[in-house]
User: Which sequence fits this backbone?
């Protein structure tokens, strides 16, 4: 008799467990997480003599990602605000009636839409977020004041509405002035720097890239280095890939000390090329000033092209190709980054996700 009761009780528990699980599964509505990623490219177009080509329109560019044609959603030239191309901006999120989601899920989707709109407005803002990284290591004992003067002149020359941050580095990174439109604050940061310890360039550049990646819109890092790296734990390849994947252009101005060291020369050239920037080797303070002027000129002529990637199963490295359309344009040269890697659970502005600090950001 006891055995029969035991068998009956066991069967009852199994029935309740299975049936109860089905009820719970039916009551929990699926949450639809909508992420819209946007890739932003900074593109320089020049002729055979290095002169900038201006006045190009979005239809003059053809962009492919992993050989998949892309449609440009936002475009601008120089420091002009970006314009939206009709019919290329996807809707973000769903209404509760469309998704069948719960009120909590609908609220989350509404937040996604709001954040996406905010991020789009960031792209429409003209100018760039410029991060200056100044070498204050023991390599800088000679020519320190001249370098400060060149940086100060560069800061003054950047027209509004560019925002500027000024960092310095030796063994550690010093954030002397966070991103601001207040030029006097940045100049105070420049003038208060002092020469110090050994150089951990790549460590500090990685931290600068991560800071810059938190912002939407065009992001640029200008590095002034007076010598090779002799203290970093981070490989330069990791820094370059993160900058590529977050849409940050790196320019480097270095002196003859770095150029005389073959490894540093090769690394500086590869890193800047990978991100769509340039490297300059200045022999004296006059060439330093020319290099800063060239960077300012470059920023004033870059095309910003943004697109929402077409469906692509590749969750790793994605190759980007930008070409000019039309027989009269094929002779011109294009400089931009050649790809990016999907950044999991990060915000950046290489890929522009609907939220900052999410996967991926405005690349």
Assistant:
């Amino acid at each position: 008799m006891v055995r029969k009761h035991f068998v009956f009780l066991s069967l009852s528990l199994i029935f309740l467990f299975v049936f109860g699980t089905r009820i719970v599964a039916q009551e929990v509505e699926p949450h639809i997480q909508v992420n819209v990623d946007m890739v932003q490219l900074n593109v320089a177009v020049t002729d055979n003599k290095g002169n900038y080509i201006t006045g190009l329109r979005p239809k003059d560019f053809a962009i492919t990602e992993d050989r998949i044609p892309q449609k440009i959603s936002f475009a601008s030239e120089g420091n002009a605000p970006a314009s939206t191309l009709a019919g290329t901006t996807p809707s973000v999120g769903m209404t509760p009636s469309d998704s069948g989601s719960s009120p909590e899920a609908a609220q989350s989707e509404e937040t996604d839409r709001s954040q996406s709109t905010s991020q789009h407005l960031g792209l429409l803002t003209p100018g760039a977020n410029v991060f200056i990284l100044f070498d204050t290591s023991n390599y800088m004992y000679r020519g320190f004041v001249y370098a400060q003067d060149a940086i100060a002149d560069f800061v003054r020359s950047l027209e509004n509405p560019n925002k500027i941050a000024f960092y310095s580095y030796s063994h550690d990174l010093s954030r002397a002035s966070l991103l601001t439109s207040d030029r006097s604050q940045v100049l105070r940061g420049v003038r208060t720097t002092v020469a110090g310890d050994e150089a951990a360039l790549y460590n500090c550049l990685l931290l600068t890239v991560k800071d810059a990646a938190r912002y939407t819109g065009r992001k640029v890092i200008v590095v002034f280095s007076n010598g090779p790296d002799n203290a970093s734990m981070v490989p330069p390849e990791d820094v370059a890939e993160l900058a590529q994947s977050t849409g940050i252009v790196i320019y480097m101005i270095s002196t003859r000390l770095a150029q005389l060291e073959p490894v540093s020369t090769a690394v500086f050239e590869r890193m800047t090329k990978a991100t769509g920037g340039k490297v300059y080797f200045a022999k004296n303070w006059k060439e330093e000033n020319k290099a800063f002027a060239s960077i300012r000129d470059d920023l004033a002529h870059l095309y910003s092209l943004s697109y929402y990637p077409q469906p692509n199963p590749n969750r790793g490295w994605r190759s980007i190709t930008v070409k000019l359309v039309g027989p009269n344009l094929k002779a011109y040269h294009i400089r931009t980054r050649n790809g990016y890697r999907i950044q999991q659970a990060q915000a950046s502005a290489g890929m522009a996700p609907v939220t900052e600090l999410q996967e991926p950001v405005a690349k």
